[in-house]
Amino acid sequence: MLTVEKIGGTSMTAFADVLQNIIFHNRQGAELYNRIFVVSAYANVTNWLLENKKTGAPGVYHHITQYREFRQALQDVATKLKALNKTYEPLGLDLAVADAAIQQRINQAQTYLESLTNVLASGYVNSANILQAAREILASIGEAHSAFNSVNILQNRGVNATLVDLSGFDDAEALTIDERIKQAFAGIDFTRTICIATGYTKGTEGIMREFDRGYSEVTFSKIAVAVRPQEAVIHKEYHLCSADPQLVGLDQCRPVGFTNYDVADQLADVGMEAIHPKASKPLEINAIDLRIKNTFEPEHPGTLITRDYVSTKKHVEVITGTDRVVLIDVYDPLMVGTVGFDLHLMQAFYDLDISYIFKATSANSITLLIWEKDLKAELVAALEARYEKVTVENAAMVCLIGSNIDEPGLLARAAGALADEGINILSAGFTLRKVNIQLIVSREQYEDSIIALNKALG
């Protein structure tokens, strides 16, 4: 059975476990093959090259955007990557070969970036396009590094492994992402080799431009659509659980087991990604099943996500949420009875490229929830200039998500569980399909809310 499998950055860093628990686990000889592994960069590498995904701390890319000298920062990353190489030498990595390969890639990237920054300094071109190209070049380095090392280790262990480098560093072909993937895999006999593919793919549309830091899962998804495996698999450092084990305790939650792509989208909407939503759509449309597995529990089947699954039992599958959001409440007495009143409100969000993740209305007010990182002074100013009163406050959202949660009394039980802990619901909402009940609470009570709901409903 052909599988396409994605290995995340944290798992890649623990490559000894990847070898033992994923690649070699209960397999030998021909059983090792018929698998394509799409690899992320080792943990933190893309943060060094671009910026820290969580904190925003600047990487090499920041030097370029600020018109600062970037060469030393890039070479510092090369030093860190060689230090990582050293840790994989006991696994079979040929250190001299690996160090030479990454230094060559870094030097090649530096040459490209020098040309870009020279053109940028001329002032004759659109800086946005140049900076986007620089971002693409930097992003590709991490996956090229981890993929090369993986193939080298496997080959030195006697496994037939094939490097599928989709970064396009050595060609100038104007291929789309899909075209590059199709070309790269043409003619490979999957029954006789393990393919290790870079999570970054070069394409005319620019994978970073389209998907930013979710690009490796998009590559994974597009490869799956191209080769049509029996199953797509994502290996993470944790299970897709019914609640965050760090909040509720490992013994108070469980792997989800089975769910559907609609639920996966609901999770992604609050930052708990089973898979990037733009990566899940092609899998869903092509009816390719997706399995989420824990790298460190290889015997566990994980969670299977399919297009049509609906639980036979009415229950909440996942209790999750986020405390990195803010509420924006817009009040205006002229709102009542006015057709399309929120059209101009939405225009302000559209003009500033801000998306909301929750919306509730009453006769004279509209309340929206957005990511805190998206809050801009320009948005508040635009709203205050048009409406009578605009209120902004920190908040949190907790969600009850599942493929079949249309159960009488569920909302009452949830509200009761929060009330018992002295937690007030600021706002609430759900659609007719009832796959996600959203409860807005104060930011300070987020963790207590998750714990209380998990205790009552988990």
Placed side by side, the strands forming the largest sheet appear as 3-4-2-1-5-7-8-6
Terminal CA distance: 35 Å
Work out the radius of gyration.
Answer: 24 Å
Structural classification: alpha/beta
> How many β-strand runs?
14
Give a short synopsis of this structure.
The chain has 458 residues and is an alpha/beta fold. It has helices at residues 9-13, 15-23, 45-49, 60-65, 71-88, 95-122, 127-156, 177-185, 207-211, 215-227, 245-248, 261-269, 277-285, 342-351, 377-386, 410-420, 446-457, and strands spanning 3-7, 35-39, 161-164, 194-198, 231-236, 258-260, 290-294, 303-306, 318-331, 358-361, 365-371, 389-401, 427-429, 436-441.
Describe the structure using short key phrases:
42% helix; 6-stranded antiparallel beta sheet; 8-stranded mixed beta sheet; 14 strands; 458 residues
Provide the fold topology.
Elements (H helix, E strand, L loop, with lengths): L2 E5 L1 H5 L1 H9 L11 E5 L5 H5 L10 H6 L5 H18 L6 H28 L4 H30 L4 E4 L12 H9 L8 E5 L8 H5 L3 H13 L3 E6 L8 H4 L9 E3 H9 L7 H9 L4 E5 L8 E4 L11 E14 L10 H10 L6 E4 L3 E7 L5 H10 L2 E13 L8 H11 L6 E3 L6 E6 L4 H12 L1
Parallel strand pairs: 1-2, 1-5, 2-4, 3-4, 5-7, 6-8
Antiparallel strand pairs: 7-8, 9-11, 9-12, 10-11, 12-14, 13-14
Helix pairs in contact: 5-6, 6-7, 8-10, 10-13, 12-13, 16-17
What can you tell me about this protein's structure?
The protein has an eight-stranded mixed sheet with strand order 3-4-2-1-5-7-8-6, with helices on both faces. Strands 10-11-9-12-14-13 form a six-stranded antiparallel sheet. Helix 5 runs antiparallel to helix 6. The model has no long low-confidence stretch (mean pLDDT 95). The protein contains 17 helices and 14 strands. The longest helix has 30 residues. By secondary structure, it is α/β, with parallel strands linked by helices.
